[in-house]
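Case study: DSBA-like thioredoxin domain-containing protein.
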Amino acid sequence: MTYDAEIQFTLDTICRTYLAKRRLERALTQLPSDCPVTFTTIYKPYQLFPEASEEGEDKYAWYQRYRYNSDEKMQKYTQLMSAYGAAEGIDFKFGGTVANTLHAHRLIQHFQETKGSKVADGIVRSLYRQYFEEERHPASDETLVRAAVEAGVEEKEAREVVGDRKEGLRETEMLLRDAVGNQVDSVPRIVIEGKRRDIELEGAKEVDEYVNALKKIVKESS
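Here is what the predicted structure looks like once written out:
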């Protein structure tokens, strides 16, 4: 008997949740081909910097000012992230813009609701890559339309949703409030649904930790 299980993945598109997604993807490929559990990832929004403007500001300068207040600390951060990224096939870059991600989340949630998890997954992948590897603005109209199109959405529809800034806005804001109400204070927050229990993991874990959690859910679901 097969069992369908959700993986709730709480993220921000300008956060190191990119690493966690890559590692979780690798973990899922390590399950046996005849695994009786089918896992579907559902994305939930969280904003690390809700006070950020829509226009944004220089990413490197922002991190240096608010997170790593010296050239030495910033250099250590970029070296560490570059090493982590290389291990997962991510070419981290540190230029570009930090900006408000509300409308990036609105896009993800709209198409997750209307077109399903596969399209939402494609949008998330594109948004991560554009921000972290191509130094693109994380929520400009151009970035959002490109993410939707890369995920399989027709360009006309993508532009309509991106351009209508009220489409899905209330629902997304409610989900963001729910995250605060549920005391989510760091991301990624990954909850793997099981028959007997759910397993919650916070922070970017190693691949083996995700594999072990998935296997526990599979074992307890049999």
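For the exam, be able to explain this: The chain has a mean pLDDT of 93.
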